[in-house]
Design goal:
The chain has seven helices and no strands. The chain has 180 residues and is mainly alpha-helical. Helix 1 packs antiparallel against helix 5. The chain is rod-shaped.
Amino acid sequence: MTTVLIILGVLILYVVFVYNGLIARRNQCREAWATIDTQLKRRYDLIPNLLESVKGAAKHEKETLNAVIAARNAAMTATGAAERGVAENALSGALKNIFALAESYPNLKANENFLELQRELTDTENKIQATRQFYNTVVMGLNTAIEQFPTNLIANMFGIKSEKLFEIDDAERRAPKVQF
């Protein structure tokens, strides 16, 4: 009888230990996603200022400016990792077009406000990339733990589900074309 109680106690402790580990990993995923959100918010706040700087120098480039505005709005309203990933990739592409405009407009390229906003946005893009990488690392850890035996039994018992990775779309995977 004592042996049964000891085995039962060890089993209960094991389940508690694994459950707490899964919850910690899930919370890490949520915290990593919140960090991505923080950087995306910073990006969203910088974009209107960048667009105002560009508008003065490139008034007839309305299509590019409108594409950035539309992409920003789509990204801000996207929900879930998959939809958010697609919208953010579209926004990244639109922002690349804004920076390409600077090459066509020497006055814009020399504008201090534009240069500072470009540096801030570049810094933000680098931070977004780093936070996406961290998010995917912690999601991979959670998903691996959920799929491995015997942890998967405990995850299923408590309804702990896997998370989606933050992925880029096919357009982002292709190497950019450089022409001279």
